[in-house]
Amino acid sequence: MEPTELSNNWETFIKMFLHRLDIPTKEDIANIHKRLDKLEQMIYQNHPSSKQKNKIQTPRKKSATSIILNIIGNHPEGTNFKTIKAATGFDDKKLRNIIFRLDKIKKIQRVSRGIYKIV
Asked: How does DSSP assign the chain, residue by residue?
């Protein structure tokens, strides 16, 4: 046997082995990358970019903190925890955490126990 025949047989054996075990070759992976690139280009062509002027903006939801600030702001003399809870529907833990943070950053002032007003 010549060395070229032996190398051809060896390459054939390896290709058959990879094919039977369903192991992708370097060429297979390169083809998959090309196909993915084409798919991504098609997706970007079909969807409008974020920089277009005709983009419709959906209204943003208010944060829980801004909702609570608005409620406390509607009561200049101060409002209590029950009123805030009834107006928002938030659970106690969420309300307490938000009120604590607002008091810590000096957005609201604690008038007395459970009563808060805007600074």
From this structure: --HHHHHHHHHHHHHHHHHHTT---HHHHHHHHHHHHHHHHHHHHHSPPTT-TTPPPPPPPPPHHHHHHHHHHT-TT-EEHHHHHHHH---HHHHHHHHHHHHHTTSEEEEETTEEEE-
* Alpha carbon distance 29, 61 (integer Å): 44
Q: The domain 64-118: what is its CATH number?
A: 1.10.10.10
CA 81 to chain centre: 32
Q: Where in the chain is the domain with CATH 1.10.10.10?
A: 64-118
The pLDDT tens digits for 39-93 are 888 888 876 655 555 556 777 888 999 999 999 999 989 999 999 999 999 999 9
pTM, 2 dp: 0.50
